[in-house]
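Dear colleagues,

As part of the handover before I leave the project, I'm documenting each prediction I ran so the next person doesn't have to rerun anything. This entry is a single chain, and its sequence is reproduced below.
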Amino acid sequence: MKIKASLIRGFTLIEVLVGLAIFALAALLLAAAYVNTLTAYATVARRNEHAQDWKLVYVGLLAEPDREIIEKGGELILPDNRRARWSAQITPAPVADLFQVSLQCDVTGTAMTAPWSQAMSFMLLRPTWSESDAREKLRAASREKLAKRIAP
């Protein structure tokens, strides 16, 4: 008994090659997505590490009551043999006892892949930094502005 050729089922060589090409393309796309996910996780981990370093420097600056020490800048030893060098510029604001602080921080270390730096500017209320005669002038100016607003 002979088997007819039309009854034999199977894939042709072209169908197999097209299937392999589609499978290879899908595997390539999945591998690229996996690598992107790993890179994103590494970036988030570095950002969290930098956030902790930045917070230590920022809290250290806020804890220092002496304006001259802050204006000199400083260095802070961080975990994993890293160093944070920071500097600050303090500018009096047009309001009594209010100062604008511009903080710059550079972190380096042997275990780090690359050094990083960050800058931030914020307003800080510090009555101890004000000079008494400048404070009184600003307060008098504020009283005059307030009197003009209240007066009809």
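The first helix runs from residue 13 to 63. The chain has a mean pLDDT of 86.

All the best with the project,
I.
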